[in-house]
């Protein structure tokens, strides 16, 4: 009986230990602080300790306020970035790529507001129809002046940030998919050739060539469209900038390793190497991964680990989590903090994040990160995002 009792106690203790990449400590943490064999409870920030691979003591401490080591960035890769989407110029773009509006300019003061807190990357979405009112046509100078005003405000916000120029059209123009019944690759590439020519001398610009392609009939054809844009950007003289390569299924981080990823890894860079080609992934934390609910049901750590494994197995490539987010609810404070802490701890593979969203959204939007009128931040920002900024 005694042997059985000891065995049961041992099993109970083992079951209580936290799995690799699970939370094991941090401010207000009340769960177990020990990790399974082969993992170390490591302080990622004051709010979040995580079981990371290692063999040191498995008991959490409370003296460290950051990671014990910084992941090694691949040669030529993107250093760790953390920031926010600044929505507005994408307003009224539908998921079929149609558009009927004028866009809204993100409040300029938000760039410095976030930069002062450590943000070093902004993502600024725009509608294709605003940039080139005719598919394959020339850039509209009036809109470009507006858009570039926001880009320059971001670049000059004080943190020397990176700025993602995000084409927010779901691989479509007015309901038709690029090169699959809709615009030709040449028409798609024409937009990026013109934009790249305007920013070719600024290496802090990142080209986000398409937001959330979805329901794409032929992945190989889409990958060819991506290659055409990469070639056009480099031919325009923009050879130092990173380019974000989106997959399919709404740029799903979960689908990427088995769906578009195996083909996108074959896209080549005329500028040489592949370190400037970063995979663009999204993943929300609500029940249906739509980013439309205020509550979070997952921290996505297992999904992100699978993505990391894929990236390492395919030449130590990098991805960027350019959309994720949650509501200003306690479930999201915990889950988003966990997800972003994992990204930070694995930034050699997932280079960083831009959370959705601030900018022209008001403070009643479900996933709002827009500061309040008195300058205070949303609880999700202070509880989950800010602790994981660079």
Automatic annotation (TrEMBL):
PROSITE patterns: CBM1_1 (PS00562), CBM1_2 (PS51164), GLYCOSYL_HYDROL_F5 (PS00659). Pfam families: CBM_1 (PF00734), Cellulase (PF00150). InterPro entries: CBD, CBD_sf, GH, Glyco_hydro_5, Glyco_hydro_5_CS. This is cellulase. Keywords: Carbohydrate metabolism, Cellulose degradation, Glycosidase, Hydrolase, Polysaccharide degradation, Signal. Belongs to the glycosyl hydrolase 5 (cellulase A) family. It catalyses: Endohydrolysis of (1->4)-beta-D-glucosidic linkages in cellulose, lichenin and cereal beta-D-glucans. Transmembrane segments: none annotated. One of its GO terms (biological process) is cellulose catabolic process. It comes from Macrolepiota fuliginosa MF-IS2. Residues 1-16 form the signal peptide. GO terms for cellular component: extracellular region. Gene3D superfamilies: Glycosidases. GO terms for molecular function: cellulase activity; cellulose binding. Its EC number is 3.2.1.4. Residues 16-52 form the CBM1 domain.
């Amino acid at each position: 009986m005694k042997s059985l009792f000891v065995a049961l106690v041992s099993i109970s203790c083992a079951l209580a230990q936290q799995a690799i990449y699970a939370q094991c400590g941090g401010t207000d943490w009340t769960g177990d602080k020990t990790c399974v064999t082969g993992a170390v409870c490591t302080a990622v920030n004051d709010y979040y300790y995580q079981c990371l691979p290692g063999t040191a003591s498995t008991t959490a401490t409370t003296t460290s306020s950051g990671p014990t080591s910084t992941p090694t960035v691949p040669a030529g890769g993107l250093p760790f970035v953390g920031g926010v989407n600044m929505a507005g110029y994408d307003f009224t773009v539908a998921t079929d790529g149609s558009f009927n509006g004028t866009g809204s300019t993100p409040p300029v003061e938000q760039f410095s507001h976030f930069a002062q807190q450590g943000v070093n990357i902004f993502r600024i979405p725009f509608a294709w129809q605003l940039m080139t009112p005719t598919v394959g046509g020339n850039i509209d100078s009036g809109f470009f002046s507006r858009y570039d005003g926001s880009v320059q405000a971001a670049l000059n916000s004080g943190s020397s940030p990176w700025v993602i120029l995000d084409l927010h059209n779901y691989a479509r123009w007015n309901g038709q998919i690029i090169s699959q019944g809709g615009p030709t690759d040449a028409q798609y590439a024409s937009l990026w050739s013109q934009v790249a020519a305007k920013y070719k001398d600024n290496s802090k610009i990142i080209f986000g060539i398409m937001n959330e392609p979805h329901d794409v009939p032929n992945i190989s054809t889409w990958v060819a469209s991506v290659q055409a844009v990469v070639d056009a950007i480099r031919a325009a003289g923009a050879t130092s900038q990173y380019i974000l390569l989106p997959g399919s299924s709404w740029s799903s981080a979960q689908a990427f390793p088995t769906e578009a990823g195996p083909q996108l890894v074959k896209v080549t860079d005329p500028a040489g190497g592949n370190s400037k080609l970063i995979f663009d992934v999204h993943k929300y934390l609500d029940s249906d991964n739509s980013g439309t609910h205020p509550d979070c049901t997952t921290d996505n750590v297992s999904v992100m680990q699978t993505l990391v494994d894929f990236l390492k197995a395919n030449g130590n490539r990098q991805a960027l989590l350019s959309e994720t987010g949650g509501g200003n609810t306690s479930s999201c404070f915990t889950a988003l903090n966990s997800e972003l802490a994992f990204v930070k701890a694995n930034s050699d593979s997932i280079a960083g994040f831009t959370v959705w969203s601030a900018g022209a959204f008001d403070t009643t939007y479900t996933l709002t990160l827009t500061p309040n009128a008195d300058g205070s931040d949303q609880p999700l920002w202070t509880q989950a995002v800010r602790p994981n900024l660079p």
